[in-house]
């Protein structure tokens, strides 16, 4: 009886399984025959039911089939975010169930190819690159030349979008070598090459097969705008005949608007942009700009609103249009999970910020309304150190909710993501290894997106703009004035904020000003430059002080500098507050003598106070590198100074290994690294040398630190590839990302006795004050005043290399009262004892 019951159950289960598989295929095919918004709603309800029911691999494959066709429809309807989410779910389902083992379903054509394209269209460049590389690898292994070429087409488009035109052209050439190749694929590759050549101003109309598009680009390059418009109109007409998507039609309208603008027809240009808006938002019937709640994540909207802001002459409408661009950009950011993608997208936000600040500055000049300056500061902050700010806020949220499983999982995924990224940037990886890492990174990205959605619902509004009143209150508490720079394309803007006021200065760029900043920075390239012409140094140091309007800042004990662009590399402490003819450095009016200079990455980071640990035990690493060409002889003196003044655990020579650093770093409150460092180059990222191995920038991103202080006593730890808004991709920045908010690091190469002397003085002061920023100032002033040091060694080259980024920790009060009481008690005890003995 039991056997019969089991057989009946098995038959019923198999029948249900087969019926479920057929039901899923039937639902998909019904939708494919008549796709519409109504049939999509029906399909969505069925899909949710199917997700709960599927168990077998055949059922999972049927659901993948359904999802990829749903994703295709959403793509065609310009519902890009929904399309991405659908394709990602299908890909995860396909890979996790190993469906390639049971079917020849074309995952490249049906999922990976459109997904890579969608990532590019939504500016998710890291995921785009990982996805495209994956299916090129798969296509090559499967000997599918058609898919390989499709991969190179999308890869070339990606590089074109990133303005890497030479790389895009070489990618096109690589794709053209693959055989067999269809005429359509060849035409698409050559068209990308044409676009790149036009962008590089190397386009020759006779070098590539003639077409309306090429004629349009040729005339555009030669500024023959009327002929360009005629050729473009013909090209647009052909594209519409071929059945272009809504998104493609909108993009054609934008290009038409650009041509009208170049033809000095602003009204016609605005009309074309409204046509583009109407194409993407069919329900929008107004000639005004749409509301934010009508928009969705698509960079076509950004193109529209940026162009609108360029044409519009009304400042209010221009700001409204730019705000819509910022809003759509923020919607797109919700789908970005890698910091590389976020950094690459900062450039355009910077351009919008500068336009917005320009308008507000000009309006303030007329109205004197200080509220406009506060708004301008918010625009400056929006595009400054966004990745660092985000990670600081995430860590702060985790500190508030340390047992939240979602937040714990998020940080574990972020850590794994950075670990894999650090492996991916290493050299000599095989194609198989690159594909494996790319696949894992794609999977983590999908997990992070779903997790972020849950976290946003549980912890909403965690990224609110900073409160200006909180800023002024903190400045009052810190007895400080804050100076924030915005290094734009046309101007340097300087915000000066005190506890009572805010002011904004504009420095219009000229070749002389740019050269002046660069020349001053270059004075610190080697020790002899300043000493060989001291008068030249004093002249430049005062001129840059005046150029950067530091003389306009209110007098205060402390000055907080938030640099930007090239200004990141200026040692402000070494600027001179007055003209001087002296050649004695000890007599020069350095800014550090007048005010204590502290740096920070942004106003938001300055306001984000970290939780301090009560103890300050130093973890030190001193590889020394004995018997090598670049032995760090004076490094030993640093270690002796730390042992003399601080509780410490120091790893010397061979024990100063990379593994010991990773094991111990999270457990100490002060980390000191005295070693070699490099700012890197276009191929290699910034890095730090341990005795046995090199630590690269990306590896620091996977660390989770919360020290009171990090001291990087090494060359160029603050130098790296400079990204607009985000700053230098340096070793110091890596430690900041890892969680170090207070950090002392160097701006140029210096391995000298002077470093050891300054470090000894620093730790002597720090051991009593527990305040890094006061110890930093005291150590430098002490060095300048030290009569045993000769004048040439007092050059700012030797003492101003180290800059402190962090908060203004109050000096630890020395409770002398208790010592006085103890002293009095001891004296009284001795007197009483003496009197007693006398009586005896």
Automatic annotation (TrEMBL):
Instruction: Provide the CHAT domain boundaries.
Output: 552-807
- Output the SMART domains linked to this UniProt entry: TPR
Q: What is this protein called?
A: CHAT domain-containing protein
Which residue ranges contain the repeat TPR? 149-182
Q: Does the keyword Transmembrane helix apply?
A: yes
Question: Which organism is the protein's source?
Answer: Algibacter lectus
Keyword Ribonucleoprotein present in the record's keywords: the answer is no
Task: List keywords of the entry alphabetically.
Answer: Membrane, TPR repeat, Transmembrane, Transmembrane helix
* Pfam families per UniProt: CHAT
What is the phylogenetic placement of the source species in the record? Bacteria, Pseudomonadati, Bacteroidota, Flavobacteriia, Flavobacteriales
Q: Which PROSITE patterns match?
A: TPR
Chain segments annotated as transmembrane: 816-835
Organism superkingdom: Bacteria
């Amino acid at each position: 009886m039991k056997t019969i019951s089991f057989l009946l159950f098995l038959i019923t289960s198999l029948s249900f399984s087969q019926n479920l598989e057929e039901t899923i295929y039937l639902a998909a095919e019904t939708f494919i025959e008549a796709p519409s918004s109504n049939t999509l709603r029906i399909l969505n309800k069925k899909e949710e039911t199917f997700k709960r029911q599927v168990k077998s691999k055949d059922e999972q494959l049927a659901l993948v089939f359904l999802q990829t066709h749903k994703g295709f429809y959403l793509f065609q309807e310009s519902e890009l975010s929904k399309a991405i989410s659908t394709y990602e779910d299908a890909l995860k389902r396909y890979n996790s169930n190993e469906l390639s083992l049971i079917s020849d379903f074309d995952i490249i054509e049906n999922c990976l190819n459109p997904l890579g394209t969608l990532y590019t269209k939504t500016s998710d460049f890291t995921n785009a690159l990982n996805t495209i590389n994956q299916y090129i690898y798969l296509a090559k292994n499967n000997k599918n030349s058609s898919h390989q070429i499709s991969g190179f087409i999308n890869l070339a488009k990606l590089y074109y979008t990133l303005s890497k035109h030479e790389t895009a052209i070489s990618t096109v050439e690589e794709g053209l070598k693959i055989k067999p190749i269809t005429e359509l694929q060849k035409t698409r590759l050559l068209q990308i090459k044409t676009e790149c050549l036009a962008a590089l101003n190397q386009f020759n109309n006779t070098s590539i097969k003639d077409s309306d598009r090429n004629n349009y680009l040729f005339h555009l390059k030669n500024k023959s705008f009327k002929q360009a418009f005629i050729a473009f109109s013909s090209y647009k007409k052909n594209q519409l005949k071929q059945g272009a998507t809504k998104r493609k039609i909108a993009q054609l309208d934008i290009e038409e608007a650009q041509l009208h603008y170049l033809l000095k027809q602003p009204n016609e240009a605005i009309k074309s942009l409204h046509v583009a808006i109407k194409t993407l938002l069919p329900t929008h019937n107004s000639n005004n700009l749409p509301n934010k709640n009508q928009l969705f994540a698509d960079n076509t909207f950004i193109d529209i609103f940026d162009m609108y802001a360029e044409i519009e002459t009304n400042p209010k409408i221009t700001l409204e249009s730019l705000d819509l661009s910022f809003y759509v950009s923020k919607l797109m950011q919700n789908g970005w999970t890698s910091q590389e993608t976020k950094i690459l997208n900062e450039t355009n936000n910077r351009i919008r910020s500068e336009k917005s600040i320009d308008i507000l500055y000009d309006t303030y000049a007329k109205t004197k309304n200080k509220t406009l300056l506060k708004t301008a500061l918010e625009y400056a902050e929006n595009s400054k150190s966004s990745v660092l700010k985000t990670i600081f806020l995430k860590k702060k949220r985790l500190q508030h909710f340390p047992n939240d499983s979602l937040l714990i999982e998020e940080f574990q995924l972020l850590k794994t993501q950075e670990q894999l990224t650090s492996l991916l940037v290493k050299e000599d990886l095989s194609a198989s290894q690159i594909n494996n890492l790319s696949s894992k990174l794609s999977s983590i990205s999908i997990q992070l997106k779903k997790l972020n959605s849950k976290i946003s619902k549980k912890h909403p509004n965690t990224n609110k703009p900073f409160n200006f009143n909180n800023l002024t209150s903190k400045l009052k508490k810190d007895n400080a004035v804050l100076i924030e720079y915005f290094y734009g394309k046309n101007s340097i803007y300087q915000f000066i904020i005190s506890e009572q006021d805010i002011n904004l200065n504009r420095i219009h760029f000229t070749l002389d000003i740019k050269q002046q900043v660069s020349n001053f920075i270059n004075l610190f390239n080697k020790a002899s430059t300043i000493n060989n012409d001291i008068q030249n140094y004093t002249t430049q140091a005062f001129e840059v002080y005046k150029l950067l309007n530091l003389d306009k800042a209110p007098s205060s004990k402390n000055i907080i500098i938030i640099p930007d662009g090239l200004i990141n590399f200026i040692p402000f402490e070494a600027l001179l507050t007055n003209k001087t003819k002296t050649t004695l450095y000890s007599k020069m009016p350095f800014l550090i003598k007048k005010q204590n200079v502290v740096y920070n990455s942004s106003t938001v980071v300055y306001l984000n106070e970290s939780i301090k640990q009560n103890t300050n035990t130093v973890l030190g690493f001193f590889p020394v590198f004995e018997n090598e060409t670049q032995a760090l002889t004076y490094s030993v003196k640093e270690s002796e100074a730390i042992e003399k003044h601080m509780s410490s655990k120091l790893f010397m020579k061979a024990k100063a290994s990379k593994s010991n650093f990773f094991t111990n770093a999270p457990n100490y409150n002060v980390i000191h690294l005295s070693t070699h460092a490099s700012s890197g180059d276009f191929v290699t990222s910034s890095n730090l040398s341990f005795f046995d191995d090199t630590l690269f920038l990306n590896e620091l991103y996977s660390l989770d630190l919360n020290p009171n202080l990090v001291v990087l006593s090494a060359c160029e730890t603050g130098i790296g590839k400079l990204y607009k808004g985000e700053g230098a991709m340096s070793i110091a920045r890596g430690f900041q990302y890892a969680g170090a908010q207070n950090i002392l690091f160097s701006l140029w190469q210096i391995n000298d006795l002077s470093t050891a002397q300054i470090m000894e003085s620093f730790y002597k002061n720090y051991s009593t004050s527990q305040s890094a920023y006061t110890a930093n100032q005291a150590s430098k002033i002490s060095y300048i005043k030290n009569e045993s040091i000769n004048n040439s060694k007092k050059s700012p080259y030797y003492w101003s290399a180290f800059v402190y980024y962090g908060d203004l920790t109050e000096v630890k009060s020395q409770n002398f009262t208790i010592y006085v009481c103890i002293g009095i008690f001891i004296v009284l005890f001795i007197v009483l004892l003496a009197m007693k003995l006398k009586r005896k």
